[in-house]
Amino acid sequence: MRTHTTAVSARMLYQLAQEKVFKPVKYFSIDRVFRNETLDATHLAEFHQVEGVIADYDLTLGDLIGVLYQFFRKLGITKLNFKPAYNPYTEPSMEIFCYHEGLEKWIEVGNSGVFRPEMLLPMGLPEKVNVIAWGLSLERPTMIKYGYNNIRDLVGPKVNLQMVNDNGICRLDKWQQIECFVITS
């Protein structure tokens, strides 16, 4: 069990650094993570983390904010706020909040930042290469997009299976398990 997927991105960046010629990359993953949290309308102990990592020359915090705005815009979510935060792997770092109309409040949907140089240096990436990264909850943006006021309605017996079946980013597989996909253009 793990609380985040940062170890996966670090391994991918190390493999990238081992290549003879650096080429800019974008890595994305969706994986299950676990937290020791009290269940409530916006918290689950088990959820899916959507992680993104982009490595390229001279990336900045502005690039990260632009990517996140674009990502959420494609989901139909346009009300975003960013708050400075501390993360052990990134600096600067920021939490990402989306506005939930039904709850009439801002909900944290993820964390993000620019990888620290001391994290990248041992990997052997070229000097001017920066890495921007984020880890987002899949369930919280889903509840905002579809107007659910309680995140627990997305799991267990209360799941609206017709919504899952009709939705472009989620569907039921032949074993009636939910598969989720991120749509990019």
What report would you give on this structure?
The chain is of the alpha+beta class and 185 residues long. It has one domain: BirA Bifunctional Protein, domain 2 (2-Layer Sandwich), CATH 3.30.930. The protein has helices spanning 6-17, 61-74, 117-120, 139-146, 161-166, and strands spanning 25-34, 46-57, 80-85, 90-100, 105-115, 129-137, 170-172, 178-180. The relative contact order is 0.17.
| Fraction of residues in H or I helices | 10-25%
Beta-strand content bin: 35-45%
Count up the helices: 5
Low-confidence parts: 181-185
Largest sheet: 6 strands, antiparallel
CATH architecture term = 2-Layer Sandwich
Question: Which of globular, elongated, flat, extended, rod-shaped describes the shape?
Answer: elongated
User: In CATH, what is the class?
Assistant: Alpha Beta
* CATH topology value: BirA Bifunctional Protein, domain 2
**Overall radius of gyration:** 17 Å
Distance between the termini: 32 Å
Average pLDDT taken over every residue: 79
How many domain modules? 1
By secondary-structure content and strand pairing, the structural class works out as: alpha+beta
Order of helices and strands: HEEHEEEHEHHEE
The largest sheet has its strands arranged as 1-2-6-5-4-3
Q: Based on DSSP secondary structure assignment, what is the total number of beta strands?
A: 8
CATH homologous superfamily title: Bira Bifunctional Protein, Domain 2
